[in-house]
Amino acid sequence: MTRALIIVESCFGNTRAIAEAVAAGLIEGGVEAQMVDVAQAPGALPEDLDLLVLAAPTHNRGLPTAATRAKARAQAGPGNNSPGISEWLGDAEVPAALSVAAFDTVISKGWLSGSAAKAIAKTLQRRQGRRTVSVRSFVVTASKGPLATGQETDAHSWGRELADSVKTG
Known about the structure:
Distance between the termini: 13 Å
Shape: globular
Largest sheet: 5 strands, parallel
Oligomer: single chain
Number of strands: 5
Strand order of the largest sheet: 2-1-3-4-5
Radius of gyration: 15 Å
């Protein structure tokens, strides 16, 4: 069976909602998908993994930092102080043969908005010389959300596309 792991960083729950929709699309496409919060993400990925999906909200046109994460958590209320995707990428070893996709949530898709997903792809390219399979952004209506209309449906469809691409290799 084809296996996928989705590692998600989410401050207000919007990125997590998209991750759940992507997971549902992967499962519908015949891929065994598991979603974990970045705080519980393994440093050493399972050897039988076929697809890794990394997800984070866009902060200041890129990946969240400790400072932007703290500011978002202050707005969201008490929560954990776990590291984010950026820190996980700094410590994790991603096998060369593993397919990787990335997505983010953004307030708008204009050229000024930036993209945490593109930052993930650049980090993987710079550190490991690898390209991601697919990079996507999903829109929230404001920093705390909610998701824009149709984004969860789009995420589900993208999950199906990922399932098809990873199964056909």
